[in-house]
Design goal:
Two copies of one chain form a homodimer. Chain A is of the alpha/beta class and about 350 residues long. Chain A folds into two domains: about 150 residues, Isopropylmalate Dehydrogenase (3-Layer(aba) Sandwich), CATH 3.40.718; about 170 residues, Isopropylmalate Dehydrogenase. Chain A contains twelve helices and eleven strands. The relative contact order of chain A is 0.16. The interface between A and B is large, with 55 and 55 residues. Chains A, B: Belongs to the PlsX family. Chains A, B: It is found in: Cytoplasm. Chains A, B: Its EC number is 2.3.1.274.
């Protein structure tokens, strides 16, 4: 049996190390071919662990927190759990990096420590979101780049289309995934300078099942499996979906609270329906955000992750490693020399 | 009494001319100082009108529809209701232009026929959206540019901050409105090339009550009265709010339909609460989208507008003219010569 190794930043996140350890143990008990290298306070970690089976602890003395300036923290906090975990991946001692900590710092650790695949100019962040209706899909779509880069070039968007395709095929198991380009209109002549040119580049690659432009109003409708965006717009759209769901749910709560007895009775009867919406729209169950384009998977789960989210994200990482997503797209990109164009 | 004149494209929109005429008559009956110049099929209009009081009909033979390519339509359909209405504004025969028709064509008619204020490089589209909570505001915020331009420069964003300020002060009656910049992080050092520079420009103008960057996840929270964005991101965020509200509402409906008798009873009891949310999130009640930076107000209401929306939009236009929004910011811009920087 091939043993996969995942480097875990045990100290990152609001509920660390407790939730991280609990999630790791859930995953360890289920995935017998995975070994975990936990970076963090050895005493605390040992006290929390039920069993040390397939678990290695690497003691570290520093923690990068949410208020740290990302690049500076990665450069200065040399003995932090996150940087040490990234170093282990760089040195080939682990196959992937996982953290619930500071997103910016994790992106920096991915780029500066783990390192990018040579032909990928700018790794992008891939997020997974739910769709309402997906007769041909799997109930989700990937948004890429959802925020790793503030400024993007057309060639980078073309690479995201490729990276997203390899992810959807090898992690989600989709055949010929439908790729769309986030744009300000569906017609091919719509767009800004970057999306107009990116549209042409993606359309020209016949290995990509390109369905054309998609508007943000249609994102949740399941029209495609992967949505390519520049990191600035992708980030804006991701956060606006999140903010709008939470706004509508709190409006609903408010309306119910002010609608008297009948409203409250109605709310009680509808509890299961509300719960199912909340769960459907809760992004954490769909795993972590993946930095794609680095030499090994770098995966970030929400800062507020609980043990279950940690477990799901480890499951996702395992599928990424087993599906050989990174080796596959690295090979394709090397053979097709996209770097020249950038 | 000063008589204001509004040029109306009576043939634009899904429900034209019926809904347009009905809305105009509602407004005519309430706003005694407004005169309406209706452009369109004279026969049809006359048949629908209850009274011709303060209504002038200008017969036109063409209509720009939703499938027309905007710039080409404005150039070729010289006798269309929209182009003739725009010409009337250009020639000083009316103070503002109103249409429920093709948005792209109306933007083109605004730029090419009505014309931009000399010092405004690129007029921007201002939309009005609801906020959940606004202890110091009026329950809405303006998003500007929400889609007139696909590519924006920092100076243009600075001008949108000014245009938005004048709009909020003179149309919404807010004192010292809070202006925010849509960005990928709240810290001043966050952003892409355009927003980083725009942040500095806006912050440097002490006449602007700049609250700094705002993330799209916080848009509906009422943190500011005007949100400045580049047109591409503004458009993406606007449409993603729209799409998410509609997705959550249809998820709710679906959950209720599949939750048996108790769910359906609950839904009945909650009908008033659902209705209040739908109405709160319905953008049409907040009036039309305004092209700001043209020599006279150019206002677009939703294609599906009914008489009530037409009425509300006319009310908004009347306040814009009476509040002298365009003359005021034109004067400020001329005195401060921002064009040099662009």
């Amino acid at each position: 049996m091939i043993i996969l190794k995942i480097a875990i930043d045990a100290m990152g996140g609001d509920n660390a190390p407790d939730a991280v350890i609990a999630g790791v143990e859930l995953a360890r008990d289920e995935f017998k071919n995975v070994e975990f290298v936990l970076f963090g306070d050895e005493k605390k970690i040992t006290a929390l662990l039920k069993s040390k089976e397939r678990i290695i602890i690497e003691h570290t003395t520093e923690v990068i927190d949410m208020n740290d300036e990302p690049v500076r923290a990665v450069r200065r906090k040399k003995d932090s759990s996150m940087v040490k975990a990234a170093l282990a991946v760089k040195e080939g001692k682990a196959d992937a990096l996982f953290s619930c900590g500071n997103t910016g710092a994790l992106l920096a650790a991915g780029l500066l420590v783990v390192g990018r695949v040579k032909s990928v100019a700018r790794p992008g962040l891939l997020s997974t979101l739910p769709v309402l209706d997906s007769p041909t899909g799997d109930g989700t779509f990937n948004l890429l780049d959802s925020g790793a880069n503030a400024d993007s070039k057309p060639d980078q968007l073309y690479q995201y289309a490729l990276l997203g395709k390899y992810y959807a095929e090898n992690v989600r198991g989709l055949k010929n995934p439908r790729i769309g380009l986030l744009n300000n209109g569906t017609e091919p002549h719509k767009g800004n300078k970057v999306t107009l040119e990116a549209h042409q580049l993606i359309a020209a690659d016949k290995t990509i099942n390109f369905i054309g432009n998609i508007e943000s109003r249609d994102l949740l409708k399941g029209l495609c499996d992967v949505v390519v965006a520049d990191g600035f717009t992708g980030n804006a759209v991701l956060k606006s979906i999140e903010g709008t769901v939470s706004a509508v749910m709190s409006l609903l709560k408010e309306s119910i609270m002010s609608s008297g007895l009948s409203g409250k009775m109605g709310a009680m009867l509808l509890k299961p329906a509300f719960k199912s919406i909340k769960s459907k729209m809760d992004q954490s169950q769909y795993g972590g955000a993946v930095l794609l384009g680095t030499k090994a998977p770098v995966v970030k789960a929400h800062g507020a992750s609980d043990a279950k989210t940690v477990y799901y994200t480890i499951k996702q990482i395992r599928t990424m490693i087993e599906g050989e997503v990174v080796p596959k797209f690295t090979k394709y990109l090397a053979e097709n020399e996209t770097e020249e164009k950038i």
